[in-house]
Amino acid sequence: MLRNLLALRQIGQRTISTASRRHFKNKVPEKQKLFQDDEIPLYLKGGVADALLYRATMILTVGTAYAIYELAVASFPKKQE
Q: What is the pLDDT of residues 6-63, one digit of tens each?
């Protein structure tokens, strides 16, 4: 019990900060050059991974829209003459 209270006290004494403890190299200028240079569409600039993610997103979006359309058509039955 005492151990838990000491741990809680230690956590409470830490300063809360949004700054990272590790220092990383700033990659923003490199990314800006990558995304501003040529006329390649944005979704292809990240390479194969971005192209696959784009295609998967489009397939899921179109498939979901088609499923909603089919549900809407099925919810209104045709009138019988």
A: 776 766 666 565 666 677 888 888 878 877 767 777 777 778 888 899 999 999 999 9
Tell me the two tokens of residue 63.
């498939």
Q: Which residue, among 28, 54, 17, has the nearest Cα to 46 in the 3D structure?
A: 54
Alpha helices in the chain (DSSP H): 2-13, 28-36, 48-75
Q: CA angle 8-9-12, nearest 5°?
A: 85
- In this structure, what are the phi and psi dihedrals at residue 18, rounded to the nearest 5 degrees? -95, -5
DSSP class of residue 46 equals T
Instruction: State the pTM of this model.
Output: 0.50
How far is Cα 21 from Cα 39, in angstroms, rounded to an integer?
A: 38
Name residue 72's amino acid.
A
